[in-house]
Design a protein that fits this description.
It is built from six helices and four strands; from the N terminus they run ββααβαβααα. The chain has one domain: STAS domain (Transcription Regulator spoIIAA, 2-Layer Sandwich). It has a four-stranded mixed β-sheet. Helix 3 links the parallel strand 3 and strand 4. By secondary structure, it is α/β, with parallel strands linked by helices. The C terminus is likely disordered. This is Phospholipid transport system transporter-binding protein. InterPro entries: MlaB-like_STAS, MlaB_ABC_Transporter, STAS_dom, STAS_dom_sf. Pfam families: STAS_2.
Length: 121
């Protein structure tokens, strides 16, 4: 069985490790008062999260919503490519505001000449 652990690190950020999945999110969410409270700006460090699914993303969205209702801020740092991809396809990238690195969405034009294709045949 997989698990997810959380601790408060030396910089007062919440450090998650393990898996944020449908199996692990319920107990972590039940403890949210402990890791969401007592800070005006909550930082969730997910660098050590090894696996995430849509339940993990939903937990992050709900944490952001709960903190926002209290006029506080929440930031997510250390997002893996897997987490970024799930956030993107789930349509919550603007809600979670996780920085995305990489190429722009602008398509690249490639010029192909017919004569170069014909030569390869």
């Amino acid at each position: 069985m997989s698990n997810c652990q959380w601790t408060i690190d030396a910089h007062n950020a919440v450090q998650f490790s393990g898996e944020l999945t449908r199996d692990t999110v319920p107990p972590v969410w039940q403890e949210r008062q402990q890791w969401l409270n007592a800070r005006d700006h909550v930082v969730l460090n997910v660098t050590e999260v090894t696996k995430v699914d849509t339940a993990g993303v939903a937990m992050l969205v709900n944490a952001k919503k709960q903190v926002g209702l209290q006029q506080r801020e929440l930031s997510i740092v250390g997002a893996s490519p897997q987490l970024r991809a799930i956030i993107s396809v789930s349509g919550v990238a603007e809600v979670l505001d996780v920085p995305f690195a990489g190429p722009t969405a602008t398509p690249t034009k490639v010029k192909v000449s017919h004569s170069s294709i014909a030569k390869k045949r």
